[in-house]
Amino acid sequence: MTTQNDQRHQQRQQKIKQQVDERIAAATQDRGLLLILTGNGKGKSTAAFGTVARAVGHGQQAAVIQFIKGTWECGERNLLSQHGVEFQVMSTGFTWETQNKASDTLAAQEVWQHGKRMLSNALLDLVVLDELTYMITYGYVELEEVIQALQDRPQGQTVIITGRGCHRALIEMADTVSELRPVKHAFDQGLQARQGIDW
Ligand code: ATP
Ligand code: MG
Q: What would be an example GO MF term here (predicted)?
């Protein structure tokens, strides 16, 4: 009985291995990706910064734009900026609280200039545009300009965009898109945001 089960298991595994090998052999393109992390669930920025850590761990160069000025300092920024990762954070204006269109646009434009610089720097293997989606939704940064900068970027450069409600044009352009779905969130049960977990 056991040997028959073992055999069947082995056959299944061989088949899976064969399928995986075929798919690996078919993946011949080598270029940077456009990766989008969107949806209402928690984990978009965490995953983007995790990828920065992964890249830096391989000796690669990464840079980050944070389009939302958080009220708290950012744990990943504290760590990763010590490892040569340039961070540009929206200095004034847009936070989750303030909504002054003129000053928000100015602040978004200012930090977007750094984004454009990063997207034209061939020395950067990875660029994270954290919370960019909201800038497009509110019209603080033009969609066409973002698309142009993404199209013109160095061939080997990977870009990660995070934020809820990502524009369809960017989703279509992307190579990998993950949508995070909120199955549950502690905040809804009255739990406070926690240092080291939420920021
Ligand atoms: P994180 O930075 O934890 O990966 P995120 O980038 O997916 O979260 P954002 O929409 O950028 O999510 O939210 C920023 C803050 O709101 C974070 O502190 C996050 O923990 C919290 N948050 C994320 N999703 C939810 C949710 N569904 N309900 C309440 N708070 C949330
Ligand atoms: Mg986020």
A: corrinoid adenosyltransferase activity
H-state helical runs in 27-163: 44-57, 75-80, 101-119, 132-137, 143-151
Ordered structural domains, the chain, with CATH: 32-182 (3.40.50.300)
Long-range pairs for 72-77 at CB < 8 Å and ≥24 separation?
72/195, 72/199, 73/199, 74/199, 75/195, 75/196, 75/199, 76/45, 76/49, 76/52
Considering the entire predicted model, what is its pTM? 0.88
Tell me the per-residue pLDDT of 17-75, one tens digit each, with 9 for 90 and over.
Answer: 899 888 888 888 889 999 999 999 999 999 999 999 999 999 999 999 999 866 678 89
45 lines ligand 1 (CB under 6 A): yes
Residue recorded with tokens 């020395």: 123
Q: Residue 163 Cα, ligand 1 centroid: separation in angstroms?
A: 9
